Prior knowledge:
The complex is a heterodimer.
Chain A: H1 2-42, E1 51-52, E2 59-60, H2 63-93, H3 97-111, H4 115-132, H5 141-165, H6 169-177, H7 182-210, H8 213-218, H9 236-243, H10 252-287
Antiparallel strand pairs in A: 1-2
Chain B: E1 4-15, E2 18-29, E3 33-37, H1 44-51, E4 61-69, E5 72-73, H2 80-86, E6 87-90, H3 101-111, H4 117-130, H5 134-137, H6 150-163, E7 168-172, H7 180-193, E8 198-202, H8 206-212, E9 215-220, E10 223-229, H9 230-235, H10 240-246
Parallel strand pairs in B: 3-8, 3-9, 6-7, 7-8
Antiparallel strand pairs in B: 1-2, 1-4, 4-5, 9-10
Amino acid sequence: MKKIGETLFKSIVFTAAILVAAALFGIIFFLFSESLRAMKEIGWDLFSTEWFPVWEKPDFGIRTMLLNSIILTLWTSFVVFSIGIIVALYLHSYANKREKELMLRVLEYVSGIPSVVLGFFGIVIVAPILLKAGAWTGQNFFNASFMLSVLTLPFMISLSYQSLEKVPKEISEAAVSIGARDFAVMIVELRYAMPGIVNAMMSVFNRIFGETMIVLMVAGGSNLLVRSFFDPIRPLTATLGSELGEVEVKSLHYSALFFIGFLLLAISLAITLLTNYIVRWRERWIRG
Amino acid sequence: MDEVVFEIRDLCANYGTHRVLDHINVKIKSKKITAIMGPSGCGKSTFLRILNRLNDLIEDFSITGQILYKGQDIYKIKELNLYRRQVTMVFQRPNPFPMSIFDNVAYGLKIMGIKDKELVKQRVQEALKKAALWDEVKDKLKKPAVQLSGGQQQRLCIARALAIEPEVILLDEPTSALDPIATTKIERLLETLSEQYTVIIVTHSMGQALRISDELIFLYQGRLIEYGMTSDVVKAPNHEMTRQFLTGKIG
Lengths: 288, 251
């Protein structure tokens, strides 16, 4: 009887694992095959600057959107990584019990806010403030970056904090016991926590890169390469989000949108693979 | 007359309301190996950690009494990290930093603000030689420290402590996680080191204390039971408890 149960359980788990792997490959294959037409008919012009998909002579160039996506993601990630790690270090090294509890509780709540609500907040609260401050439009790069930071900071802080808390006491004590000041102790702890923090960075990067609702609502939607913090922009995901519902199925425009999806997934997967490689490499320095 | 490094006066220590050290009075001599012995929970690790002021990190820990390091009360020291560089510590389980072998030893020099690369190299090499590890690692200084064997890692931790040129080295059961061969190496090393440094070692093993120590402190349930030259204590223990420990009846 026990044996049957075990076999049954094993096969369920095995099937689930297969299904997940199959789903990933299915998605990649589907995106790829749907975007084949655009790749064949448009070719390298997919990477030109203009995107006018429904004009008489349509343009399907995604370069500006891709660059805007990358710049927005890199900048926001930089901000979120820096603030996230600093706050995590503060919580880990200096905060007392009550501060820790309060902070982690608040983060938990903030991380539960749906991105559409954050987008709404960006439009209703942040945009007017930016306008008052002199920006020529309230929905812009800065607004998007700010709301994306609010979206992802809770993850960055709590994941980094958890990695720091997992540093064995003996490692920190070893540094203290030979006379290291706080900063030097933190360097050691950060090195030990690095795999976890790099993983957190990856999740945050992918989340920002793939986030659609917020950028659709507050980034401004203009397909111009960003030149200042207060320029309106349109990242790749915003285009995908706004046009996919309207497009004629199986048209060239449809295929070009799938190409965007395929590209987003490919970049995201590449980042994940790279992160895994870095994490494995760092772990050899920690666990031998 | 031997120089006294630590003079401990009426030391009591508590975790919350739980008393772990009870009115300890003892002197520790310079350039000797002093072994602190006693069964588990007798307060010997706490005693050692107090000397490095490491228990400052524990929230509800408190002490009364005085600990004089060369006449200075260590609980009145403000530049704590400078003090810890003189009275440094090696732990029970090897705990190398997640860095290369070289960087582990160089860490102490970096926190001291030594920037001259040649000097760092030279001091790292000296420390590794003193810790009897140089010959084993000189070709793989850039490799991760965690890839060394347990005994090598522990000697690396000793080298890390030696690089900052301390006066006192505190060791908390440094061989309890190691095999007999690695243990022997470390014991030999400590004997050599005691020519230049004051060595204070907490140990669980009677044999180890007898093999290497010059002075013996025996703690039981937080109280100082016996204290003196190892050879004297072994020949004629003053206290019944010590006799039982020596003959293996307790411990």
